[in-house]
Amino acid sequence: MKKLLYSFIVTGMFAFGLTSCDPVDSDDYSLGGNTIPQEALSWNVSQTDEAKQTTFTITNNSQLLDGVTYYVSTNGAKLTVFPVGASTDVTVKSNGTVAFALYAFSACDQKMLTWTTDVDWFTVDEDLQWLGYTEGNDLLEDWIPANNYWFSPSDWSGGLNPNFDGDIHSGLTLTIPENCGSDQWQAQVHLENNGPTLSAGKTYDFSVAIEASADMAGDGVTVKPQKQGDDNTFFSDARHPIKKGLNVISLANCQGFDGPFKLALDFAGAPVGAQYTIKRVFLTEHNAANATGDTWAFDFKSDNNILKEATLQPEFWFSPSNWSGGLNPEAEGTAELFEVVVPEGMGGDQWQGQIHLRFPDVNVASSKKWNFSVVVVADHDIPGMTVKPQQNDNDNVFFSDDRHDVAANVPSSFVYTSQNGFDSGFQLCLDVAGAAAGTKVKIMGIYLGEE
């Protein structure tokens, strides 16, 4: 009670303003107290990204001064006593601006220190996860299908409503209705009409993301990319396990058909009341850069990942167009999540924006085969980003040095399997020359393990 009352009194003082004192004024009407130097106010802010939230930890590193009390305010909320050495957490679950203010009060003076940051990446629940294929021309980019359904009790009488909400690009959410049956095809979703016309003479890559509020029992969801009007012609009609959270189903190098595309799914067996969101559908003519469904991304946390706990030594060489070098990017992170901000003045020629993430202490034995994967996300387009997993001390020995266009805010997965080792340390070299100044690049989940 005492703490709350004092906070209220201080808030009132801030609202109406304090009478500042003259440091040489010593008459009987002076409030007394000390003036506060601005440099006395100091704090540290650290950030932790977790599933579906970001937490900022603020620690008061200010000077301990006689007669001075510190307070903190977050996003314009009330003032709270904040002693020197104390910490507080602020957790956010959506994109936007986060603001903190640190106040110092004495009997005759006040000072303020502010800090703001934008939480402006894609939503945190999708962070550090692969979201589907990205290479090639997305044939479904402008697809506006009819969203139809057929949900039924166990007696196959139909008539149940899953209450669709949204669309397949931003997210089409359905809720499993009461009395829904558990036999396959008793919870059908049909995304049909206006689909692209495919060719039997071509092969295709397809992926879709499904976000689940609950695990799905049994064999999981049926995913059936097919020819509209012909249930017997399809890429696959397999069932896929679904766990709470984000699930990605991908099908690579599928034989095409002559006719329009349709996507059918079946959620029979899901728990009543559970919500499932269908999003990020992607379809393209087969592109070798799209890895197969078994190897699209390796698990960073796997015990097979020799980079998971290895020493990371980042180095950079960013240069203007005249190749003079000397530009320094903002950068920090680990092999799980490393962030780089492109500096002003960088040139557009290949190798004028080099990022070297070195792991010199690992041993990539030449007697073994190796699998590698990494996911990259940028908040602006990057034309022709070079991806070069290589020997740490020899630029001429590498898994690949291909260039890839990276679209803004679209996760790009780069996977190389069954690669020859080289009896040395390892580094991932990326070149982002041509990216706009200020572009934020996230390099996520770097994996290297024996085949």
In terms of topology, how is this protein built?
Elements (H helix, E strand, L loop, with lengths): L1 H15 L26 E8 L2 E8 L8 E6 L5 E2 L5 E6 L3 E10 L4 E10 L26 E6 L13 E3 L3 E5 L11 E6 L4 E2 L4 E10 L3 E12 L2 E5 L4 E4 L2 E11 L3 E8 L8 E11 L27 E6 L11 E4 L3 E5 L11 E7 L9 E10 L3 E10 L2 E5 L4 E4 L5 E9 L5 E6 L8 E11 L1
Antiparallel strand pairs: 1-2, 2-5, 3-4, 3-6, 6-7, 8-11, 9-10, 10-19, 11-18, 12-18, 13-17, 13-19, 14-15, 14-16, 14-18, 20-23, 21-22, 22-30, 23-29, 24-28, 24-30, 25-26, 25-27, 25-29
Textual characterization of the structure:
Strands 8, 11, 12, 14, 15, 16 and 18 form a seven-stranded antiparallel beta sheet that branches. Strands 20, 23, 25, 26, 27 and 29 form a six-stranded antiparallel beta sheet that branches. Strands 9-10-19-13-17 form a five-stranded antiparallel beta sheet, with no helix packed on it. With 451 residues, it is mostly beta strands. It has one helix and 30 strands. The chain is globular, with a radius of gyration of 28 Å. The relative contact order is 0.11. Residues 1-31 and 120-128 have low confidence and may be disordered. A hairpin with a 4-residue loop joins strand 6 (96-105) and strand 7 (110-119).
